[in-house]
Amino acid sequence: MAAETPVIDAAARASLWMQPHRIALILIALVVVVASIFLMRWDWLPAYLPLALQGIWRTIWLLVVTSVLGIALAIPLGLAQVIGPPILSVPAKVFCTIIRGTPLLLQLWLLYYGLGSLFPQFPWIRESFLWPILRQAWPYAVLSLTISYAGYEGEVMRGAFAGVPLGQLEAARAFGMSRWKIFRRIWLPQAISRALPTLAGETVLQLKATPLVATITMVDIYAVASRVRQDLFITYEPLLLLALVYMSITGILVFGFRRLEARIPSKLG
Amino acid sequence: MFGASSLELLSFEPPNGRGLNLLHGLANSVGIAFGSFGVGLVIGVGGAYGKLYGGPVVRDLLEVYTTVVRAVPELVLILLLYFAGTDLINQLLTALGYAAIDINGVVAGIGVLGVVQGAYSTEVLRGAIRAIPQGQIEAARAYGMPPGLLLRRITLPAMLPFAIPGLANLWLIATKDTALLAIVGVNELTQTTRTAAGATKAYFTFFMAAGALYLVLTLVSNIAIGRVERWARRGMPSIAGSH
């Protein structure tokens, strides 16, 4: 069947998508949305809008920073597990197992409450220039989300590195490329392009992990919604809006990764 | 910081030791994970059937369900479903003339996480059912098997080997997602740990101990999953080495 219709033009695809029942469903959804706009309480929105925008910015900032740092850690972690000597591969394996085997919320609280109660006992830490930073919540949030992402992605990168065909690396060696050049030109790009679909999913999971930082007093968009709930005793409106915000960010992420995947020419055997 | 006094806090003797509290929390966590995984499986089988064989409206609604649940953080869903669920049940009870009840945290946790798990298992099981050689299902239909028998005798056993890696992942996610219920005050392992740590100020000791318990749970699960996978794959050629 697929062979008979290799190319469906945009109009045909739209008419295929816009079946009668879909139009009915969309109309019902619209009615629900309009009803919720008029029947629910939204008068608090203007007052909290600046805080909400700042919260959204903080969520996105946290996502980007921890994902980039996490992947930077994950590449050596994956590499160590594939070609590292036991002295590197065993600790990398143990690290990934521990991070993947315990809940992120527990790791976050261990770092925040544990380190947070430990640091003040040392006078030299309290007198150091870092102390004003270490007293805040965000370093612990960044640290724990980064190592969590690194733990999961270390495992993904291990699979990706191991999945690059050996012949490619042998061919590169036969061309007389140095080890670093083989890694930079052949191994890493192919591993990344293999891992990209998984990384897209994992980054969405990372986005969904960011609201946990609200439990250690960092004010992201989730914390803003909780504050509205506590200030005004309205439960559903902020949570529904919150769900909408996260769905939008997820949509943008998925779209972005799809564009990125399309740009990489891939012919996987 | 890991002196004898802090290890004493983990002992099972009631006045100072809080080891029993942690084990009680672990039992609750495992119970919630089991329950929500089971609820998720039931939703998943129904959802996968709906997505594969259902009418257009059912299919679209299920698509909305799985997309929304997989795009919104578990924490937000837990709060929404927890508040909305308990609200709805109590309003229903008062409308029927009964007194409002206080819903048990464990039961609420199972329900809420079950709905979340259901979306993921719908996708896993849908993929697994599609991986079955379709001739097997057609043959069963040709024999005149009713749908229930077909599900029990053919579809479920035949899809199991394809579904187990995904389901194993879901089980591990379920055990770790129980920690999120600490936010709504359900008395599971993370919540009891936080209470104990806050009361004694021995944060490192208790969070490390809880982490070790979660890790043991994961490692034991991995061994069990390996056994189940071998059992489900019995009689099938192994993937490794077949090229």
Question: How would you summarize the topology of this molecule?
Answer:
The complex is a heterodimer of chains A (269) and B (243).
Chain A: H1 10-17, H2 20-39, H3 45-83, H4 86-101, H5 104-118, H6 123-127, H7 131-134, H8 138-163, H9 166-174, H10 179-209, H11 221-232, H12 236-263
Helix pairs in contact in A: 3-4, 3-8, 3-11, 4-8, 5-8, 8-10, 9-10, 10-12, 11-12
Chain B: H1 4-8, H2 19-53, H3 56-71, H4 74-95, H5 105-131, H6 134-142, H7 147-177, H8 189-200, H9 203-232
Helix pairs in contact in B: 2-3, 2-5, 2-7, 2-8, 3-5, 4-5, 5-7, 6-7, 7-9, 8-9
Quick recap:
The complex is a heterodimer of chains A (269) and B (243). Chain A is an all-alpha fold and 269 residues long.
Can you put this structure into words, describing what you see?
Chain A contains 12 helices and no strands. Chain A has helices at 10-17, 20-39, 45-83, 86-101, 104-118, 123-127, 131-134, 138-163, 166-174, 179-209, 221-232, 236-263. Chain A has 269 residues and is mainly α. Chain A starts with 9 loop residues before the first helix and ends in a 6-residue tail after the last helix. Chain B contains 9 helices and no strands. In chain B, helix 2 (19-53) runs antiparallel to helix 3. The mean pLDDT of chain B is 87. The A-B interface holds A 19, 21-22, 25, 97-98, 100-107, 109-110, 113-114, 116-118, 204, 207-212, 215, 222, 235-236, 239-240, 242-243, 246-247, 250-251 and B 1, 56-57, 60-61, 68, 70-77, 79-80, 83-84, 172, 176-180, 182-183, 190, 193-194, 197, 201, 203-204, 207-208, 210-211, 214-215, 218-219.
